[in-house]
Amino acid sequence: QVQLVESGGGLVQAGGSLRLSCAASGRTFSGDVMGWFRQAPGKEREFVSAVTWIFGNTYYADSVKGRFTISRDNAKNTMYLQMNSLKPEDTAVYYCAADPRGRYYDLNYNYWGQGTQVTVSS
Questions:
Q1: pLDDT tens for residues 60-106?
Q2: Cα 46 from Cα 39, distance rounded (Å)
Q3: 83 - beta bridge partners?
Q4: Per-residue pLDDT for 1 more than 90?
Q5: 23-30: Cβ within 8 A, 24+ apart
Q6: pLDDT tens-digit series, residues 17-29
Q7: How many CB atoms lie within 10 A of CB 88?
Q8: Are 38 and 113 in contact (CB under 8 A)?
Q9: Which residue, 14, 65, 105, 106, shows the most beta carbons closer than 10 Å to its own?
């Protein structure tokens, strides 16, 4: 059984930073893509960023490009999202996901974490 556990969310002022972590257990994602998504109240879940596990290729939504950095630690089976210059519109529940069945920016992933709340105050 694959489990994804997010951590690192919290309350931060606009302009601040947070680092999210996603620890994977149950399987080594040696050839997979892992991604971050977010869902704000009343809105659909949206793609934030993704990383390929072997080569570390990274992908970002336009809304976070230049502010967020995704990375992974293969030895720890953990993915990170460093979020800088946070804005109130970044407020959402952030989810990590693994093993997409299609394109990395679609919601069609086999495994999801439980989510971690990020709140950015103005």
A1: 999 999 999 999 998 899 999 999 999 999 999 999 999 898 899 99
A2: 6
A3: 18, 68
A4: no
A5: 23/76, 23/77, 23/78, 24/77, 24/78, 24/79, 24/98, 25/77, 26/1, 26/2, 27/2, 28/77, 29/53, 29/77, 29/98, 29/99, 30/54, 30/74
A6: 999 999 999 876 6
A7: 11
A8: no
A9: 105
